[in-house]
Write a structure and sequence with these properties.
The structure is a single chain. The chain is α+β, with helices and mostly antiparallel strands. Helix content is 30%, strand content 23%. Among the domains are: 181 residues, Alpha-Beta Complex (Rna Polymerase Beta Subunit, Chain: C,domain 2), CATH 3.90.1100.10; 286 residues, Alpha-Beta Complex (Dna-directed Rna Polymerase Ii 140kd Polypeptide, Chain: B, domain 3), CATH 3.90.1110.10. Strands 26, 27, 28, 29, 30, 31, 32, 33, 34 and 35 form a 10-stranded mixed sheet that branches. Strands 3, 4, 5, 6 and 7 form a 5-stranded antiparallel sheet that branches. Strand 8 and strand 9 form a beta hairpin. Helix 2 packs parallel to helix 14, helix 8 packs across helix 9 and helix 14 packs antiparallel against helix 16.
């Protein structure tokens, strides 16, 4: 009876305190208002995406494989009907149960815990025979429930890699001898780099795949902008460097007697000679080389993240949005072509609210202020032998309200593009961005900002090696199709031509010997969890620890809530090996996101379903309060900030703001830290170097 009374009294005393998941009472002064997410999700969700979508995507990109029999080719004309085709039947992937069925059995028997991958292939031969068959594509290692792999009896963990995101970048550097050096580049996930840069003589040049530089006009004319009037109309006449580059690289003598297509091909031949000096060249060869370098989805891939970044970075919306202190005025009316309504008149100063209004209307996506280089009536025409994606948006602006001031052209890419390769629209837009930066319109990129860095998780890393394995199979497939096909013999079967050894060998190499595939740290549960949430800037395609600068290793303001500023190794890997923060997640593009609660007029929405996860790019413009500011509870779903002014983060700066301006608040004070760092009691009182030491010693 006494025990029941004591329990009732305790319940009464603690009724206002928050209960944790295990029933314990939380006495923390600043309680974490959001439950921790699944901490292994960074591994499991990524590999699940590879199994469910990644393999299907790679098969669709790799197949069909065709091969023309040389004998048939000599006797008759070359066409699709006389070619042997090996095709993939969509959505025909099927898996067999893992063997052995239990990861522990695989560990005890020193075998690999894996599942057999099979897919249905269809073989078409010139005599009209079609054979469909299920083909074995090897044993693919299966992930355990805890996010690890059992390879030859050893438990291994794949460390996620943090790399520069594919996309478009503009830069501004100060050189002691030359002065300001401007640059713009398009960096793909796989394929040829394209880099514009200025030099000491005032020219604007372009490098294709780190090769010798050529004048930017050579590339632009090769893409179809063959005369000076077209260049001036698209990019404007305000850039002295661009005007000087045009003057120093005039059109060839007699160009008036040649068609735009012939002029464009001449410039393609010029690029071909720069890239492949000494090789014989033809018109078709030059067109084919350029098309394969940039406009071929098999050889050039921006990836899902790269296309997303291009659409955001090179859109007119992004370019019109100004930071405080910067002003842009329209030099022409913005007219909705569907209704004829003038949305904003010439001379109007563009604000953030105006840009949001245009976004909500899908103003530029709907074809307003748009020009199509494939339209005969358009002022410019692209070389359609290369690519036909040539829609751009052009908005003319001024930096002052003066109607006689210089006019600047903002060229934006087509926002409806969904192709995985770069297009003429993207190239025109990134070049325009560079010209705008030279005139003080826009901001150069910070490559250490997490908006420009993304995480390649286990699924993406395995998918890359799966793709490489398929590519190694290609030549063997073609040779076997030709060698084994007999017109008068039995029907050729897919299993006879497919040899999966290159594919399985590639995957085995990755799991056994890659720098990112490690024996899982099993000292204690914390060390195992930390291993799965680790981020490495090293590895294939990453940085080298010998050449990594201080800037790359340093803590950046965008790390807040995404990458732990405390837990990193001591020694030469400092800053290159990091850990995800407690609440951090990876979004579908590979960018790290962190959670916030919405705030309106000082009232915090405490509903767990309304928590928003933002990447570093999404965070720009928000006023974000700290979780430890003074708060009083209103009801179960909301609470109020009691201070009139609070310390906030805004665009990477720490500021003090009125509570009415706050629109987001951190979900927990430990949101900035990794799991290991958050386990240290009273961490805020520690010296930074001792905190780093402690977080490493816990493991």
């Amino acid at each position: 009876m006494e025990n029941n009374q004591i329990r009732e009294q305790l319940d009464e005393l603690t009724k206002d305190y928050r209960r944790l998941n295990n029933g314990r009472i939380d006495f923390a002064k600043v309680s974490g208002t959001a439950d921790l997410p699944n901490l292994c999700e960074v591994q499991t969700a990524s590999f699940e995406d590879f199994i469910n979508h990644g393999i299907e995507e790679e098969f669709e990109n790799f197949f069909p494989i065709g091969s023309i029999d040389p004998k048939l080719k000599a006797e008759k004309s070359q066409n699709d009907q006389k070619e042997i085709f090996l095709e993939y039947v969509p959505h025909s992937i099927h898996w067999e149960d893992p063997e052995p069925a239990d990861p522990n059995d695989a560990r005890n028997r020193n075998t690999t815990y894996a599942r057999k991958l099979k897919a249905t292939l269809r073989l078409r031969t010139p005599d009209g025979k079609i054979t469909e068959e299920s083909v074995f594509f090897g044993d693919i290692p299966a992930m355990t429930d805890s996010g690890t792999f059992i390879i030859h009896g050893a438990e291994r963990c794949i460390v996620s890699q943090i790399v520069r995101s594919p996309g478009a970048y503009v830069s501004l550097e100060n050189d002691e001898k030359v002065g300001k050096v401007y640059g713009a580049s398009i960096i793909p996930q796989r394929g040829t780099w394209l880099e514009f840069e200025t030099d000491a003589k005032g020219n604007i040049n372009v490098r294709i795949d780190k090769s010798k530089k050529v004048a930017c006009t050579t590339l632009l004319r090769a893409l179809g902008l063959t005369d000076n009037e077209t260049l001036a109309e698209m990019f404007g006449t305000y850039s002295d460097k661009f005007n000087e580059t045009i003057e120093r690289n005039p059109l060839p003598v007699g160009y008036e007697n040649r068609t735009p297509s012939q002029i464009s091909t001449d410039y393609l031949i010029d690029i071909y000679r720069r890239l492949r000096p000494g090789e014989p060249v033809s018109d078709l060869g030059a067109i084919s080389m350029m098309k394969n370098r940039f406009f071929n989805r098999k050889q050039y891939d921006m990836g899902r993240a790269g296309r997303f970044k291009l659409s955001v970075k090179l859109s007119v919306y992004e370019r019109l949005e100004r930071r405080p202190g910067e002003e842009l005025y329209l030099a022409e009316d913005l007219v909705d072509s569907s209704t004829g309504e003038v949305v904003f008149e010439a001379g109007h100063m563009i604000t953030k609210a105006d840009v949001e209004k245009l976004r909500e209307m899908h103003f530029f996506e709907n074809g307003n202020m748009q020009f199509d280089g494939t339209d005969p009536d358009c002022f410019f025409h692209v070389n359609t032998a290369l690519d036909d994606h040539a829609k751009i948006n052009i908005v003319k602006v001024r930096k002052t309200p003066d109607a006689d001031g210089p006019v600047y052209n903002i060229v934006g890419t087509d926002l409806n593009l969904d192709v995985s390769y770069v297009t003429p629209s993207d190239i025109f837009a990134v070049f325009s961005y560079m010209l705008n930066i030279m005139e003080g319109i826009g901001q150069p990129d910070d490559i250490d900002n997490l908006a420009n860095r993304r995480v390649k998780c286990v699924g993406e890393l395995v998918q890359e090696h799966f793709r490489a394995g398929l590519n190694r199979m290609e030549k063997n497939l073609r040779d076997r199709m030709i060698a084994l096909y007999k017109p008068d013999g039995e029907a050729l079967k897919p299993t006879a031509v497919v040899n999966v050894k290159p594919l399985t060998a590639n995957l085995s190499d990755f799991f056994m010997s890659s720098q990112l595939s490690q024996f899982m740290d099993q000292v204690n549960p914390l060390s195992a969890l930390t291993n799965k949430r680790r981020l490495s800037a090293l590895g294939p395609g990453g940085l080298s620890r010998d050449r990594a600068s201080f800037e790359v290793r340093d803590v950046h303001p965008t790390h807040y809530g995404r990458i732990c500023p405390v837990e990193t190794p001591e020694g030469q890997n400092v800053g290159l090996i990091n850990n995800l923060s407690c609440y951090a997640k990876i979004d579908r593009y590979g960018f790290i996101t962190t959670p916030y609660r919405p705030v309106k007029d000082g009232v915090i929405d405490q509903d767990p379903d309304h928590v928003v996860y933002l990447s570093a790019a999404d965070e720009i413009g928000h006023m974000i309060a700290q979780a430890n500011c003074n708060i009083e509870k209103i009801d179960g779903k909301s609470s109020r900030i009691t201070d009139h002014r609070v310390v906030c983060r805004h665009n990477g700066e720490t500021v003090t703001a009125d509570v009415d301006l706050v629109d987001l608040i951190d979900v927990s004070p430990k949101q900035i830290l990794s799991i290991a760092s958050a386990c240290i009691p009273f961490l805020e009182n520690d010296d930074t170097s001792r905190a780093l030491l402690g977080s490493n010693m816990e493991r």
